[in-house]
Amino acid sequence: MNKTLKAGVILVVAALLVLLPASLVLADAKGNVKGVVDEVAGDGSSLTLTTKNGAVTVLPPEGFSFEDTLAGKTIMAKGYWAQDQFQAETIKEIGAGDDKDEDDDDGDDGESFQNAFCTGEKEGNHPLVAKIVARYGDAVPTADGTTSEDLIKGWFCEGHSFGQIMLALTTHMLDPESDPYQLLLERKNGRGWGQIWKDKFLIGSEREGMPPGWVHKPGFGSLQENQNQPGFVPPGLKKKTPTP
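The structure assignment produced for this chain is given below.
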């Protein structure tokens, strides 16, 4: 990646961090942790897992608690990071006969495994679904009577992580003509967010002669068309609205 493209990616990521609340940004770190259970809290509200990278505090899936019989056993937890703790969505005990090592599977693209909210074992939606809908509001498209929460849950249960869903919705807010679901499919098919943003002119493109690294602000046309217009404000300045 060349320096100008890196600069553009940094600016777009900065914009995303402004739009996303801190608690949801942290939830983007979806993945797995595997290790030996060192200790289970007396009330089952957490356990300490010794992994190859050190000790990790793991929280149980919603509506469940840990049993002290897990102590000393090797487990694989799938879920997401919540601040300095790992929120498990599924827990699997790893036996001596299990050959598959999933340590390096970070789940970046939202693995297709189903949690209790997707399989029907638990009623309702994952708590993050309501938070995403409350945050993004009209940015969540609906059709045929489908509610926003049902739509987000459907995307999640298809295998898209909450972090990827939030990035797709934030990109849709920056580029209203983009379809967040199609963005998710592009990402799942291997296209990086940097390439997606570049193609949508959210970051600079030397190929198109645009100033490298400039963010396309909603409400304006292309940067080429508007950089000389009255009131145009380059990224990084505090003023956000054009002057009359």
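Interim note for the steering committee: The chain has two domains: 1-28+114-212, 31-99. The radius of gyration is 21 Å.
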